[in-house]
Design a protein that fits this description.
The protein is mainly alpha-helical.
Length: 206
């Protein structure tokens, strides 16, 4: 591993080293050792599929056609042409990484108000394509470790994980309400929720 390796590649090499060391520990049960070996295989598959341990890099033309077609579609749909060009050039012979990066770029644009995935089901369709093509390539554990958990979360929560529900103790709401009333010129210690709400709506022009 050289200094020219990308950060994700260095992280994969470190993860592989850690799992190999763990496998030598006598304290682990056979079941735990089996899980360690599965993670080792998954890491090796990741490096193999990203052309990091090939003497000859894989030819993209040999990869599944549906995957390349979707990459071409996403490259057109994403508006940040500079970002698309960088992804396609940087991961020229890594179709799965190309598609994942384009999906992430499209989601980033969508979070800033640009058109994107119409609903979670459309994003699941792209994840299913990644899963299917990885499985066809024999990378079942890689699919299980990386794609499947994300797909399950998306199917359960949709895009709502970005919403944060902040709650506060009612005592602090009462104190805030009293301060609002003082701003209105009232010194009463009794909180009028409707009055406070009307004041806040008026002041913030909601």
């Amino acid at each position: 591993m050289t200094d020219t390796c990308s950060k994700p590649t260095r992280e994969q090499h470190r993860a592989l080293y850690v799992e190999m060391v763990r496998n030598e520990y006598p304290k682990y049960t056979e079941h735990e050792r089996r899980r360690i070996r599965e993670r080792v295989v998954t890491t090796l598959e990741t490096l193999w599929r990203t052309a990091e341990i090939h003497l000859v890099r894989p030819d993209i033309s040999s990869e599944p056609g549906a995957l390349q077609e979707r990459i071409d579609q996403l490259a057109i749909l994403v508006k940040a042409s500079g970002g698309v060009a960088e992804i396609l050039d940087r991961h020229e012979e890594e179709p799965w990484r190309q598609m994942a990066a384009l999906m992430a770029l499209r989601l980033g644009e969508q979070s800033r108000g640009a058109p994107g995935y119409r609903d979670p089901a459309c994003l699941v369709d792209d994840l299913n394509l990644l899963s299917h093509t990885l499985a066809e390539a024999g990378c079942h554990m890689l699919e299980e470790a990386t794609i499947r958990p994300l797909r399950h979360k998306l199917e359960m929560f949709g895009f709502h994980l970005a919403t944060l529900d902040v709650r506060q103790n009612s005592e602090f709401h009462d104190k805030a309400g009293i301060r609002v009333k003082r701003l209105e010129g009232e010194e009463s210690g009794v909180v009028d929720v409707e009055g406070c709400l009307s004041f806040l709506i008026h002041e913030t022009n909601v």
